Amino acid sequence: MSPIKSKIPKEERPYLDRLLDEIRYRISKVEDIDAAGQSIPRYTGEFWTSKQRQAHSLHEISYRACFKPQLPHFFIEYLTRENDKVYDPFSGRGTTVLEAGFMERNIIANDINPLSSLLSKPRFFPPLLEELMKRLDSIPMIENEDAEIDLSMFFHPKTEAEIVSMKNYLAARHESGEEDDIDRWIRMVATNRLTGHSKGFFSVYTLPPNQAVSADSQRKINLRMKQTPEHRDTRVIIYKKSRTLLSNVTTEERALLQQTGGNGRFLTSDARETKAIAADSIQLTVTSPPFLDVVDYVQDNWLRCWFNDLDAAETSKKITMARTLEDWSAVMFGVFRELYRVTKPRGFVAFEVGEVRNKKINLDEHVVPLGVKAGFKCIGVIINEQHFTKTSNIWGIDNNEKGTNSNRIVLFRKEKK
Ligand SMILES: C[S@@+](CC[C@H](N)C(=O)[O-])C[C@H]1O[C@@H](n2cnc3c(N)ncnc32)[C@H](O)[C@@H]1O
Known about the structure:
It contains 14 helices and nine strands. By secondary structure, the chain is an alpha/beta fold. The site of S-adenosylmethionine has 20 residues, from loops.
């Protein structure tokens, strides 16, 4: 493997040469694996790190199993040029599309969970803090307003009245067609701040924000922690979180994101059937699918769905929750067939499969044949290994714990027809 980089300017070089050169430059190990009756190279190295490139503040919305923006950034940088179309069929909080937006690419996001577009689209239309403050102040807060369900184990009555007032205001604006970008921003931040484990959330101490416990479990947490919900000023919390999210946003970025978001699409289809996407239109897909873990969508999202008048049970029926590798592979094969249809000839799919499952299932080896059967050529497997030192304090003694975070990505290309 040559560590020497080409002298031809990056922009003029073929996409894959650019990527493979970068990989060879940073590689620590390469091995060949057998998959789909072929020998596929598996490259391991520290190809991107959080240290090299700080993620933009606008990404900081939590979402279950989200990846870091550095991951899509790496593939977008080498496998696309400005105005190329970048897609994520399992978009989650929108990490791929937001990063692509910053990089002047066109975007399509899709996720069957309606909370996904609600949490990602508003970040393409970031408000100015002054206009946000004005709007927050204009929302009528009705005293003694309470939810039709018992939420007293999470919220102080005054906080609950504020949340219900906000919920009703947002619903009315939506129904009357008056809802605008600032309303949608408020909806996003409020949804993100409903429950959590610090004073930056509306609720008393509970699980971190991607999960929500049942009312009964919260009563038990309150008993165990000897806590009762105290008043939290919801508008101050929304303002503070917005200030953090907006802290890096420049005027140029604001204009750029508005343009990409305006031209972009946010779909809520099953990833196997995305009729709204034209054939042969996508230059690059960067995605991570739902894994084999069993997730309880209704339990995790009931409160967020309540706030947004969404039917959690309906969404739960549609979300892919495969219990066996066979079931998972069958769904993913359907996804690859659809990706093959929408990908441009010579376009790419970077499919992240996480770490080794249950210490024995290498999902990358199972994904290679699925993509190949759908028509793609497998270029290789890329494992990004990021080493970190975590300082933990146990009984007053500082302990430097060393660890590794790794992401496995299977890279495919659609060859010319
Ligand atoms: C691992 S998460 C993706 C996280 C994303 N990379 C991010 O950074 O936020 C997988 C996503 O797939 C979505 N999903 C599950 N089944 C789906 C399906 N059949 N079609 C489309 N999306 C689906 C889930 O709602 C979830 O948001």
